[in-house]
Amino acid sequence: MKVKRLRWWIIGLVCLGTIVNYLSRSSLSVAAPTVMQELHFTEHEYSWIVSTFQLCYTVAQPIAGYILDSVGLKVGFFVFALLWSLVNMAHALAGGWISMAFLRGLMGLTEASAIPAGMKASAEWFPAKERGIAGGLFNAGTSIGAMLAPPLVVWALLTFESSGLGTEMAFVITGGIGVLFSITWFLIYNSPNKHPWLSKEEKEYIDAGQEKHLADAHQKPSVRSILVQRNFWGLAIARFLADPAWGTLSFWMPLYLTKVMHMPLKEIALFAWLPFLAADFGCLAGGFIAKFLIEKLGMTTINARRTTFTIAALLMIAIGLVSIVDNPYYAIALMSIGGFAHQTLSTVVITMSADLFKKNEIATVAGMAGSCAWIGQLSFTLVMGALVAVIGYGPFFVGLSIFDIIGAIVLWVLIKEPIGHVPSGPIIEEEAIINPE
């Protein structure tokens, strides 16, 4: 059996994986008020639980990427997805904040595989000119998973409340969904060279659009050789500067709207999800803009990515304007522009790991650069937490508007166009790339 445009179904499967990943990740934050009451721990102890996850996730990304590059996506991502799902289900057995922190640490170690896996799948299954779109599609799963967690977890809490098993079932259900996904992944996923559903024509189309100089060397990646390359540090620094924006939207926006804008919680629930919806559109925009620049303006792949990043970085100026508005709805609108811009440039810079490094290095590079991104997010969070009560939120929003412009400069200065890149423009004629006949 051959499936038309199988690559788009495959990236849909990867997107499902990121949805499940973020659904599991977000289950505790939604259930936190109930869990804290039942297990008798404080907000300070809860912060240690969250920090444990973030630290383990930061450390594990390059390790997870190296494992995926070494053993392959089919087996590697199946094991990681199964493990994080079982750990999520085990949250139901936690007896206090220490055991919960331990479980969150294990989840961080395993969930760190999602973005490196998605990037490696995009590189294997897509020609260079479509890779940004594919990266945006799987990255959109992060916001979708975060948006699905509240209704599903609250439903479980309320449905099983009478039996006293509300929180336990919330973790069992979200973890069980992950187990089902891991099995589905193992049954369906394979590389283009091995997949029985891939047609000869589509295989040739994918191969024709791949960078020949980045072909898989069939060797384990060398971390040392990656670290000495200026291209890696261009990506790592850009991601270090970009990620604080996402951390601010995820962890600080509700607090800002409550304490500074005096917005009622009911209205926050009604409107505060808009920046994340805009972020989903940003995930897709980065790939389409770069594709347009490649096909219509004749740019090389790398220059198209850098130009797209720069456009989005200029749009990030909107989030700096949050510091001067006094209307909460204007603030949410500006944050929505920021969410769109951030995910546009974030998808672009993540995708560039596949444009610049060999197939057997992509997940490792994505993981190592991802660690730099999370270090940037953690550092900004710590500084913000220490100083926001003294100097307010304004300087931090202004900083976010500047960081990505610096990141764009870094990409133009440090990234070196590889010799033998894929020629710009369409490689072979194919109609209805996304929409099947």
Summarize it:
The protein is mainly α and about 425 residues long.
Low-pLDDT runs: 422-437
Overall form: globular
Estimated helix fraction? over 70%
Query: What summary fits the major beta sheet?
Result: none
CATH topology of the largest domain: Growth Hormone, Chain: A
CATH domain class of the largest domain: Mainly Alpha
State the CATH superfamily name of the largest domain: MFS general substrate transporter like domains
Distance separating the two termini: 17 Å
List keywords for this structure.
437 residues, 2 domains, Growth Hormone, Chain: A, disordered C terminus, 0% strand, mainly alpha
How is the secondary structure organized here?
Blueprint: H1 6-39, H2 43-71, H3 73-90, H4 97-111, H5 114-125, H6 128-159, H7 166-188, H8 200-208, H9 223-227, H10 230-259, H11 265-271, H12 274-296, H13 301-315, H14 317-320, H15 328-356, H16 362-391, H17 394-414
Q: Can you give a write-up of this model?
A:
It is a single chain. The chain has 2 domains: 210 residues, MFS general substrate transporter like domains (Growth Hormone, Chain: A); 204 residues, Growth Hormone, Chain: A, CATH 1.20.1250. It has 17 helices and no strands. The two termini are 17 Å apart.
